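Notebook B, p. 112. Complex prediction, attempt 2.
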Amino acid sequence: MIQHPAMLSRRSLLGAGSALVVSFTLARPPFPTATAQSAPPRLPGSLRTTPMLDAWIRIDANGISVFTGKAELGQGIKTALLQVAAEELSVETKQITFITADTARTPNEGYTSGSQSMQDSATAIRHAAAQARELLIAAAAARLGLPAEQLTARDGVVSSPDGRRADYRELATAEVLHLEARPQSKLTDPGSYRWIGKPMPRVDIPAKVTGATAYVQDLRLPDMVHARVVRPPSYGARLRSVEVAAVERLPGVLKVVRDGHFLAVAAQREFQAVQAMDALARASQWDEDKALPNPNELYDWVRNAASKEYVIASVGNVAEPAGRSLEATYHRPYQLHGSIGPSCAVAQAEAGALTVWTHAQGVYPLRAALAEMLGLAQDKIRCIHVEGSGCYGHNGADDVAADAALMAMALPGRPVRLQWMRDQEHAWEPFGAAMVTRARASLDDRGSIATWQYEVWSNAHSTRPGGAGNLMPAWHLRRAFSQPMPEPIPQPTGGGDRNAIPLYQFPNMRIVHRFIPQMPLRVSALRGLGAYMNVFSLESFMDELALAAGADPVEFRLRHLADARARAVVELAAEKFGWDAARKPSRGLGRGFAFAKYKNLAAYTAVAAELEVERESGQIRLVRFVAADDSGEIVNPDGVRNQIEGGIVQSTSWTLREAVAFDETRIRSRDWSTYPILRFTELPEHVEVHLIDRPGQPFLGTGESAQGPTAAAIANAVANATGVRIRELPFTPARVKAAIAA
Amino acid sequence: MRLRRALFGVLSVVLLGAAGFLFFSRQPALPAMQPASAVSFERALIAKGAELALIGNCNVCHSKQGGAPYAGGRPLKTPFGTVYATNITPDAETGIGVWSETAFLRAMREGVRRDGAHLYPAFPYDHYTKASVGDLRAIYAFLMTREPVRAETPNNELPFPWSERALIAGWKLLYFKAGELKPDPTLSAELNRGAYLVEGLAHCGACHTPRNHWGAEANDRYLGGGDIDGWHAPALNGASPAPVPWTSEQLFRYLTTGFEPPHGVAAGPMQPVANNLGMVAEQDVKAIAAYIGAMLGPATANRRPAPVAPEAQATSRPAGGDVKTANSDGAVIYAGACALCHEPTGQGFSAHGIALTSSKVVAMADARNLTHVILEGIDPPKASPAALMPGFGAAFTDTQIAALMAYLRATFSNQPAWSGLEETVREARQSAREP
Amino acid sequence: MLTLNINGRPHPVEAEAATPLLYALRDELGLNGAKFGCGLGQCGACTVLLDDRPILSCITPIAVTQGRQITTLEGLGGIDHPGPVQRAFIAEQAAQCGFCIAGMIMRAEGLLRRNAQPSDQEIRTHMRANLCRCGTHMRILAAVRRAAQAVRSAGVDTPPTQDARR
């Protein structure tokens, strides 16, 4: 049982005291029972698991290096972390060499996911850097024979009032930073920030716009060869036979590898590998089964599949609803990550050791999984993160690393670059799960919500490796690994039940998560996890209730919202949008509003949408989006803006266009023609984002906070424009047209 | 003497004829009226008119690129010069805002402007005349309730004597028969409805029928194929070039979504038609499809699909060393550019490109359509966002495109080779839109 | 052996005639700007210019490019001296993962070489051929508008043809 989320918010507000001393951050709020003990105060962020300062900061004669276990996914985290490090070390950003996730060099911070990087890594680096700075000042004080309070550190130099100086590089002997971090740090006063809060340009963009090597897809190592895999035509298909002789004779082909149902080919040149892959596919025969649900009965399948029930919130008594009641059921199909660049990895096996260059979100978990798959000791494997294209969660990155590793083992000494084709990425990446939600509520005689019930049916939202069992290529080996039964991600973070508990205050509430372990279609974490669908559902439902209560949708939300920062975000978005309760929408135009605090732990985001519906065709023409966001203390305002804008556009594509197509045997969404996404001609005219900065407050992750509210804002605007409530995603023209006609 | 009398006789006949003709050709002007206000029309009538206007494709001709809907300005190239579609928004000065319903009906049924002048038959009143008065009144209600837009229609660019509207009276005498199409008791209700729409508002024959020297549809070759905007509108009768015969069901889906494998995508001038029909009541499009299906008739021997063995298709892909077996320019281009989408991969997946053996643009005698498709690509129709093809106008030169087309013709059809392909490509480029 | 004219210089390539230009650029010549996004001409990540016009290098066999001018991202400017379109993208911070951006820049360059005053609608229609999955579209549009401005005010209409990096 969990406390009401509103109480957690108050605790977090109390926890953030003065700007100079922060005793702990909101990385993971304590469960009620944990606070009862008199445990030592926990270290901030990822320092909890990696407490040594010199795991994060190294200074030697060459300069300053800062390490993070997180990965740059294109969300700008490298730049933001650099800003934090530079701020607290009191140096310029260009004085720092920044190293990201590498099992040989950086702390283990698990996965870069869940919008945790600021809360985990930035917090750790912030404190480590601040403490390092103070240690260097102390070392300078000892050397200069002056009290530390008289010294100032700036740009890598500690100086005294009388002009004597000591450079960090001289001060930082091996012992100085080889200490465990302390729970408290002397943090820089926000009033004197040089880097935090500034829209510093991203350090990775110049290389990306000029063609310098930036992605794992661009890596070129000496003697490198190219490989392609031939995937089965469907999950569980079995390779009956394959004639490899002809393929082996093709120009440039070095080796064909068959291991059970795993089939791949390596060649000298990349296009030769592509052609060989094609020939190998034609030369192979597979046995397939009908193992997928009937796509026309998908939601029946979701509702009826065996599930485990978790009551994740229970307040008061929902059994006797008072007054008017409403009920609604919502549906969401499987949806793709659809990374624009198919997944890729480079691997090299040499002298019993394996190096893998990968864009997987978790290099340490990947290493463990590869070790298990290959039967190697973990310390024989090094996984180095190199950027790929945006992954938006668990895509093919881990799997292709496994493919590349297998080929590297078959061609010892040669670096092997293996890249998936477009149809392989589409068909084999783990999808965002299909979900059904049902909301029931009753209104009291003042038109406020008296009881609230909500159920969500969903598959798992994380099947990340872990172990070899979650590396898809390992399922096809002769010595096969089976996919383990998935477990739900517990609250308060949640998986399918992420954001199933509204931030609103209801006197009586019951929220149930029905977790479906069986996964006929492969699923895992897609950006936002269950939050996209849960926020779409409950924010659509809030509008349905507001309509029943005869209330303005914004006012109705404020009526139930106690969290002051949440109210501020709602009010700001409404104000900037020009949300006038009294105004009637102009002919054909509809407007909609939605709000959520991601995971009830991260950023607060409100989105207002305006659009037009062409009734005869069901086409939706987006006019504008206006969003407001509170991400705590903002490190890089432009980065936050970019994430919110991007989240709005990405969610618009999901909401208007996207559903994985399949039949009872195969996945049918294989390319952009069979899974269309939003193009430039379908964009809104205008998107604007307004930020509320909270200097001194903990960082709150922003990468996934806009998607849910955007979907609901669109749904509410469509209802406003047409008088018709649509509850099934996506809002394709055919579906909108049919709903209007009905 | 006899000669002089003969000449005088001829001259008087000619003069009398001309005088009578000129007398006859002049129609009375109808008075201007106060622009009608929107509320004077019933909502149901407006809604009906909206649907009929979609079937009639009014917005397609009467709107120009980047212009307001129905505000005119679009040029229509004819063999006689260029005619500009007029502004039919209810603007009082530049549109039809002061046209009474009577004036509008006369224009649609008789091809006469409010001021009495004859309208050029580039405006297909020879079809619209077949519509009922009730339907035309609904269209009037719809147009008069659109947003009035002030936009002057450019003057037509017609050299003398085609600039003289009086000549149209003669044309009408020979080629125009006014009157509503009455139902045929031997046809089913659906076919009657289909006939009514096809012959009337949908005016399919206006593009899909060849025209004679005077620009009139050649009735003896009705729906035998025509020209529009540099494209060929294929025959919709027994002479249809489609290698795979159309069924009415396929036609219905094609007309409503714009994409029907194995036939292909509604491209070029046909795409706006499909976009419009996708917004029309389904039973009307079914009726149109049924009637056209009946016109197409059963597949004749020369229209059976050319059987191309699957193996032959497979080897046209560059399966490693096999590319040497087909090393002409056209084959190389096909292998590197087209086969990726137009043939299934070794994994059996197909990226929406239709099998070219069933493509009518490869099989038809007129090479222009395929030229346009290659140069410009295909924008997805409104209802089929997936049906998208990139254009190759920038990637390939005229010579390369000609070589590719020759290869496609030889490989994927059993029709005789096209000639003059480079010239066709060069000409098509002039009117091609950027890919 | 074919010779390709890339960014103003001849480059011999060993690949077969039907090889898509994308592979020749990336694998043989190490020009990583153009990306493999789909190999089907659907996403535009592979966009380069051929005779000043944008093409999809993943579906353009090198055979057709002989004797013609190929321009890649590297030909517009390097990291020390980015060209006007590249500078506009940096100024607008028009990238998240950035994988689509090289194609976007080339596509925009193709537009601006023909029309230095595109309307917003013209930009959107022109860029339709390119996909972005991160949702950076609004910034990309802003970058193209900004680049158009820069091109107009600099009076730049002859694009750089040298490969600034080599």
